[in-house]
Each structure stands twice: as structure tokens, then as C-alpha cells.
User: What shape does this take?
Amino acid sequence: MTKLNAVGVFCGSRNGNDPKYINAITKFGEILGEEHIELIYGAGHTGMMGAVAKGALSKGGIVTGVINSLLQSLEKQSFDLTNLRVYPSLHERKDVMFQTADAFVGFPGGIGTLDEIFEVVTLKQINEINKPIILCNINGFWNPFKEIIDGLIRCGYADEKHRNLVTYVNTPEEILPAICKELAE
Assistant: This one.
């Protein structure tokens, strides 16, 4: 089995309308810190991003923020990360995240989060990466994503096997076991 050293997390820079989202991602950050698994994320200090980082740091975790220079100029850094990596473009930022994480987890977020999820799923589909992708489906947040994939399959634009590119869980406590199960296969 591959050792799980680092997890890339994609999520929003906003809190969202449901406090369950913030509570869940904070808990996941705490789990990463307790398990000594590095958090790799978009370096944001607000919303879901800030919550996962603060959760990991509160338990002594290693937190690596990966950001592009434009976003960094717009962000107010309100707490210290273990590592901060700044790249010229969003594409380079994502490439670094895709290369350095052993697995990826999607939490609720906006258009940027969707972009990251779709790109990593595409990379897995074409076998450029073979890493677990887990979507934390709090209150059914990722159900529309499932429906899109089902629609692509129904209309002949994707194969049945593409449903298996992503694993859905409902709680932060289910994420690491799901990752470890996939890494063991």
C-alpha cells in the first residue's frame, strides 16, 4: 500500500449558507493534523479554505498553501502556514497541487472548486494520475455533480466506468478510510 503523506483539498473561499460545511471541513483539517498528513490547499485564509487550514494547524499539522501571485496579491494573510508556495499562474499552482498530493478531497465550494475537481477527474480519466478523488457529499452538495456524470453516460459521452473516478462519502470521518482503501487496491 502507498503511504498517505499529503492530501490536496479543494474547497471554497466562502463559508457557504450551511454551518455544517464549515464544521465538517474544520473536523477534516483536525483529522489531518492528528494523523500527521500534510494538507495541501489553495492558501486561502477565509471560508472553507481558512477553516481546513486552521483545523489542521490546531492539531499540529503541516499545512502547505499553494497560490498564484494574482490571488496572493488579493488575499489578506491572517495566519501563518507551515509552507507557502507562490507560482506565476493558476495553471502552475494546480499542477503543483496535482503532483504533490497523494489523494484529493473536494468539499463545497464555488466555480474555482468545480474547475479543480473537473480537472483532476479528467487527469484520472486519461490516466495521467491514478490517485483517489473523494467528494465529501455533505447534505447532498455533490449530488448535482453525480447527475452530470450520469447524464454524460446516458448521452454516450462517458463510459459506465467513469462513475468510479470519484468516491463519495458523507462525513469527514469517512474520508481517510476511503482514501486508504483505494490506495490499497
Observations:
- Helices lie at 19-34, 47-58, 69-74, 90-100, 111-125, 143-154, 175-184.
